[in-house]
Specification:
The chain has six helices and five strands. The protein starts with a helix and ends in a 19-residue tail after the last strand. Helix 3 packs antiparallel against helix 4. It is of the alpha+beta class.
């Protein structure tokens, strides 16, 4: 798959199954992440990888956060199953710092670009991935349980695995409809 084909056909793959990326594939995915634009070479990200027992620990973190927020039993049960939607979940964290030339927002965007690069790398490898956020990405209890600082921001949970179904490629849209010239 060439780069243009990847850019024009990439899509989220919400139905994932085992196997997760192997060691070689995961290295490619992570190496793609750190090639994104990074003003000041700050590397404002951390990738927390959950597989196997790590998925159970992530589920426990979600359940505890949901309980702390007073969630009902239905949501608590849903939270317990969220990490099990894929054989690997990569929590992408923007680890920002005050910098005279690189605003915090730019650092968070760089972490978002890293997430997109990982999803594209997975797709190029024949894997599937879907980038999710939701309430747990903005939950102080989740941050604390993951050992994050108060200023750290989860930019997404990247669910990665093997596509459970061969979904048809979505039709190409016309990007020029969102552009204008000055």
């Amino acid at each position: 798959m060439d780069a243009i084909e990847l850019l024009l056909t990439r899509q989220s793959t919400p139905r994932l199954t085992a196997p997760a990326p192997n060691e070689r594939e995961l290295k490619i995915i992570l190496d793609a992440a750190i090639r994104v634009p990074d003003h000041g070479a700050l590397a404002p990200w951390e990738f927390i990888i959950a597989t196997g027992d790590g998925l159970e620990r992530l589920a426990e973190i979600y359940v505890n956060a949901a309980k702390a927020n007073g969630a009902d039993d239905d949501f608590i049960n849903k939270a317990k199953g969220m990490p099990m939607r894929a054989p690997m979940v990569i929590t992408v964290v923007a680890k920002t710092a005050q910098h005279p030339k690189v605003p915090v927002l730019e650092q968070q965007i760089a972490a978002g670009c890293a997430t997109m690069a990982m999803q594209q790398a997975a797709f190029a490898l024949g894997l599937g991935a879907v980038w999710r956020t939701g309430d747990f990405a903005f939950n102080a209890n989740v941050n604390a349980a993951l050992g994050l600082a108060a200023e750290d921001q989860i930019v997404g949970f990247l669910y990665v695995g093997t596509p459970a179904v061969n979904a048809p490629i979505k039709p190409q849209k016309d990007g020029s409809q969102y552009a204008r010239y000055l």
